[in-house]
């Protein structure tokens, strides 16, 4: 089962750097990502989603997170779900993208802030977290259990629970 992880960063560039590091780590098979999306708002307040071209060991399942986020943040959940389902080749699963999550994410995306939203299939946390710790980040939401979420927060240096 995949886990949803959303981490806020001070700006889009930082979120992109962390996404790229995670992409490198996926090629080393230290993390397996189903989807990786950088979400932020431009100076006009318009939502911008930048989906990774590849994650995991091959191409992304694609669209599961991006479509759902776009729909929820644009207040068109059915459209977002349709886009996400089409991009994910109609794989149907609940990835934890709900209205509460969308509200939390939208609140965290005041420009220039951005979020990295990940759908993680598997990870070797003790190898991954040290590689991204210097970039910090504030955990917005996860579908991880309490112990794993606490370890993630600690690994990122996020003291907010």
Note down, in words, how this protein is organized:
The protein is of the alpha+beta class. It has one domain (3-156). The chain has helices at 12-27, 64-73, 77-87, 99-108, 125-132, 146-156; strands spanning 3-9, 31-41, 47-51, 54-55, 58-59, 114-123, 138-142. The strands form 2 sheets. A 5-stranded antiparallel β-sheet has the order 3-2-6-1-7, sandwiched between helices. A hairpin with a 5-residue loop joins strand 2 and strand 3 (47-51). Helix 2 runs antiparallel to helix 3. The longest helix is centred in the N-terminal third of the chain and has 16 residues, at 12-27. The two termini are 24 Å apart.
Task: Give the arrangement of secondary structure elements.
Layout: E1 3-9, H1 12-27, E2 31-41, E3 47-51, E4 54-55, E5 58-59, H2 64-73, H3 77-87, H4 99-108, E6 114-123, H5 125-132, E7 138-142, H6 146-156
Antiparallel strand pairs: 1-6, 1-7, 2-3, 2-6, 4-5
Overall, the morphology is: globular
Number of domains: 1
Strand order of the largest sheet: 3-2-6-1-7
Runs in which pLDDT lies below 50 for 5 or more consecutive residues are 55-61, 74-96
Radius of gyration, in angstroms, nearest whole number: 14 Å
The helix/strand class is: alpha+beta
Sketch the major β-sheet.
5 strands, antiparallel
Distance between the termini: 24 Å
Give helix and strand order, one letter per element, not per position.
EHEEEEHHHEHEH
The helix content is: 40-55%
- Strand tally is 7
- What value does the average pLDDT take? 77
Number of helices: 6
Q: Beta fraction of the residues?
A: 25-35%
């Amino acid at each position: 089962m995949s886990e949803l992880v959303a981490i806020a960063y001070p700006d889009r560039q930082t979120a992109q750097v962390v996404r790229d590091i995670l992409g490198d780590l996926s090629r080393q098979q230290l993390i397996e990502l189903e989807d990786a999306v950088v979400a932020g708002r431009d100076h006009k307040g318009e939502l911008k989603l930048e989906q990774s071209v590849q994650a995991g060991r091959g191409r992304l399942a694609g669209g599961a997170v991006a479509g759902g986020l776009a729909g929820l943040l644009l207040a068109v959940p059915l459209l977002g779900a349709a886009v996400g389902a089409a991009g994910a080749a109609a794989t149907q699963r609940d990835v934890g993208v709900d209205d509460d999550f969308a509200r939390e994410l939208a609140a965290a995306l005041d420009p220039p802030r951005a979020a990295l939203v990940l759908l993680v299939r598997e990870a070797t946390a003790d190898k991954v977290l040290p590689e991204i710790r210097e970039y910090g980040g504030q955990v917005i939401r996860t579908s991880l259990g309490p112990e794993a979420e606490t370890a993630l927060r600690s690994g990122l240096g996020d003291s907010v629970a």
